[in-house]
Amino acid sequence: MRLRAPWSARSRALPVADSWRTGARVLDKAASGVVSSRLAVPSWQGASADAFRSSSRRLETDLDASITSLLDGASRLEAYAQVLAEAKEALERLRALVGAALLEAVDAGAPAVLVAGVRYAAAGAAVGIRARVSIAAMQTAAALNAVGVGASSRVGSGAAGVGAHGGGGVGAGKGKDDDGTGSKTKFSDEDIRRLRQQADGSSDWDPVDQYKIGDCYFLATLDAYSQSEEGEQFLRDHVRWSEEDQAFIVTLHNFFGFPEEIKVTDYYTDGNQGDDLGGGRRGPNLMSVYERAYGQYLGDHNLPNGRPADAMRAISGQYGPPVVDTRGTSGFLGAVREDHEYTDEEWSQIEQAVKDGRPVVATTAGGDFGDGNTASDATANTDARAADRQHPDAAIDTHDRSGDYQIAEGHAYTVIAIDDKYVTLRNPWAHNNLANGSDAGDDGIIRITREDYEKYFARTDIGGEIP
């Protein structure tokens, strides 16, 4: 029996992805030049100055959109290449198991029908693996069409990740592609002691605090698992300390749901900022360990620009968590259109998932930012208290500041509560911004109206029940 798969596609996908990332870096430099030229003439006033600034902002926006598309497209191609690599590994493993089973059956003089059964089962498994590769290929092609690679599209594919050059773009200024993953810090003895306590359940960890790496989709997903005791325990159950390796062993899952053990001996210096140790000191926590493990699993350089659904699968091993989005259908043969509305059934799905303690993450890529990014009648947790960490769903009260707040474009938030009028979210930046762009002085928890949620959050990823 010959088990074949299109491995040559992987060798073609990676160089194309690299070329797109190179193109994004070139455009990034150009965008930085546009910003610099605008800032270089602060005293220039008048109609011509206004026209210049307006044109340069439009150019910056277009460049940001192209950068976002290139980075998102590269990430999709790399993810597809990873699927191919995992499928190849699965087929090789299947080949070895089948070979051993057939030899054993022949040596034992098993009936021909039994030998045929082994071959039939193996063929079925191989077909299943190839089917997943085909599905991944179709999803990748659809995603590349959606992000408009090669065109000036501002709409992402539902991936929330990283800004292009520190202003605007996906991730709203939280670094750029490759930033942050190069700098790593070894765990100290104090770190190891604290992390082992968090892994064994004798200590808790602080909420996520994103810094320069554009992995909001992954940190928001980790935070979503941390909302329930079952989710916290699940994360703990998949991290252990190995004395032999002097490393934390994190169990993640590949595209086919197979567990993979990742050895973690350090953390991203510019990644999740971990726990507040007092006195202005911060140290890595269990979320930092997971972030580093996921980075190693992906290859470090492509942590930015991912999808919560992929992060959920890697953490849980569950394939295909449901996704609800604001696209409706209309027109000829039910053509899809974006109406920025969730149906009653979709609202019920989100509500039930939050009620059940399942991980829920919302992304703003594809949201309606045509007239700005302000959420009115919103309330941020400006009067944060110790109890809010244990009960973030009840953190917002009359002591907190209500008003206008920014919703970051191309970003991911954890959904932590929902009622008939409001949706409560947590920003993985560990703060929100006022309408004027200044830090609101909160802890990242913000409550917005359902109307603003529909407007800005085009996609909601819902994880399965905690295994």
UniProtKB/TrEMBL annotation:
Keywords attached to this entry: Coiled coil, Hydrolase, Protease, Thiol protease
Active-site residues per Swiss-Prot or TrEMBL entry: C216, H411, N427
Listed InterPro entries: Papain-like_cys_pep_sf, Peptidase_C2_calpain_cat
Biological processes, Gene Ontology terms: proteolysis
An example molecular function term from Gene Ontology annotations: calcium-dependent cysteine-type endopeptidase activity
Domain (Calpain catalytic) ranges: 208-462
Keyword Coiled coil (UniProt): yes
Region annotation (Disordered) ranges: 166-204, 364-398
Coiled-coil stretches: 77-104
TM segment ranges: none
Biased segments, Low complexity type: 373-384
Composition-biased stretches (Basic and acidic residues): 174-194, 385-398
Protein name in UniProt: Calpain catalytic domain-containing protein
